[in-house]
Specification:
This protein is 31% helix and 22% strand. It is α/β, with parallel strands linked by helices. This is LarA-like N-terminal domain-containing protein.
Length: 423
């Protein structure tokens, strides 16, 4: 028996119970009809003229029904005589390479075949101006040279700063379409100044680039589209702020305020810019944002396939696994951190042999007075919070909460021969 096994000997894992967290939600069912209605509004579809080359900006997040949104937008543009093409609008993601960014889109289901138009991926940018403090403003070269730009993005709270515009339309303009160079410049003075930089740089682009309109979504607590709107360029900043307030009100959460251990099965860039949303886990990479549960120990078990080895976010965890470590593409991961000047998301927690060892270590070190009553929650990822698993110690609180439905009996955690959690 090795030293780690000796240290963890005698530690027991709690029995777990499946529950369902119920959130009040609305959902847009007929996406094609809403897209048609939005394009028919004044100031939207009428801006597209015959023969115009239209850049459709698409980011790296796993938006609900993203391929469909892009495909329908492309079709509406083409119906009006425009010549649409997709540009990746994702700053330094995809390893800050043109091929990497095209691959990110493909992993999200956005390909030339699925959306019906060319994907033009390049890291070339054009400097289009400066903001008051002298920082340059950069724009994707393909988008800059197009006759018009259309943005598609979800609006939600940011993971590392607070401001009137966070992760949404203005940020897509500033950082997404700024590519690596623009993202690096926007982050130049750290997240302390991100709110002002995002606003100022977006305003420069709206003033001097051919932005026609934006298509914004807000998702409900189960990550389904609940709001879908198109807004003309002159109303993008106002709409972004209004949609952010709506997104914050609709955001899901773990319905327990204090946890001894939180287990996240997987993280990935398509889930959150930080791999797992700090607004859900309560663990932030900077001091400029806060919220979420008080978690003593955080365990991260694996990476998603779609993240392509980008392990940003693992750094706020306390324990992870060798299988996750072996999947890390350090170039992809570090490119993000160097660009945004924040190393914390990529720092390594303790790397344990397998899932079982990581969980045992987290329980043993969670500082609970009675480890037989450890308060542990396990989630698939921060996008899926409807059905989760809780330890027996949380059952009384769950049964007392009308928003929680208990859907099973306490059962021991099951592991395969390699020590990986099953179920």
């Amino acid at each position: 028996m090795g030293i780690i096994q000796e240290l963890l000997a005698g530690t027991e894992l709690p029995r777990m119970v499946k529950i369902h967290q119920n959130f009040k939600v609305t959902e847009v069912q007929d996406i094609p009809s809403v897209i048609r209605q939005e394009f028919a509004k004044a100031g939207i579809g009428e801006q597209i003229k015959d023969g115009m080359d239209i850049a459709v900006a698409v980011g790296s997040r796993g938006l609900d029904r993203l391929p469909e949104l892009v495909r329908l937008t492309v079709a509406e543009i083409r119906q009006r005589g425009g010549r649409p093409f997709v540009v990746p609008a994702m700053g330094s993601h995809g390893g800050a390479t043109a091929a990497g960014q095209a691959s990110v889109l493909a992993n999200l289901g956005v390909t030339e075949e699925s959306v019906g138009c060319q994907v033009c991926s390049s890291m070339e940018v054009v400097e289009v101006g400066k903001i008051g403090n002298g920082l340059a403003v950069h724009m994707d070269k393909y988008a800059y040279e197009a006759d018009g730009i259309v943005i598609i993005n979800r609006v939600k709270p940011h993971t590392a700063y607070r401001g009137p515009c966070e992760s949404g339309l203005a940020k897509m303009l500033t950082i997404g379409l700024g590519k690596q160079k623009g993202a690096e410049t926007c982050h130049m003075y750290g997240f302390k100044h991100m709110a002002e930089h995002v606003l100022a740089m977006a305003q420069v682009k709206l003033a001097c680039c051919k932005v026609l309109f934006a298509i914004g979504t807000v998702e409900n607590a189960y990550d389904k589209i609940s709001t879908l709107v198109a807004v003309p360029a002159e109303k993008i900043m106002e709409a972004d702020q209004q949609l952010l307030l709506e997104a914050k009100a609709k955001m899901p959460r773990i319905l327990f305020d204090e946890l001894d251990v939180l287990v996240v099965d997987r993280i990935g860039k398509e889930i959150s810019g930080d791999g797992m949303d700090p607004n859900i886990t309560g663990r932030y990479p900077t001091p400029y944002a806060s919220g979420g549960p008080d978690v003593n120990k955080l365990v991260v078990l694996d990476l998603t396939e779609a993240t392509n080895g980008n392990a940003c976010g693992v750094g706020v965890g306390d324990y992870t696994t060798r299988k996750l470590f072996n999947k890390i593409d350090f170039d992809y991961t570090y490119a993000n951190c160097i660009t945004n000047t924040t190393p914390a998301p990529a720092r390594l927690p303790l790397v344990m042999a397998d899932d079982r060892e990581a969980l045992l270590a987290a329980v043993k070190t969670c500082n609970a007075r009675d480890l037989s009553k450890v308060r542990l929650v396990r989630i698939k990822d921060t996008l899926h919070l409807g059905e989760i698993l809780i330890s027996e110690a949380l059952l009384p609180a769950a049964m007392a909460n009308p928003a929680i439905e208990v859907r099973g009996e306490p059962a021991a955690m099951i592991f395969d021969e390699a020590g990986n959690l099953l179920g």
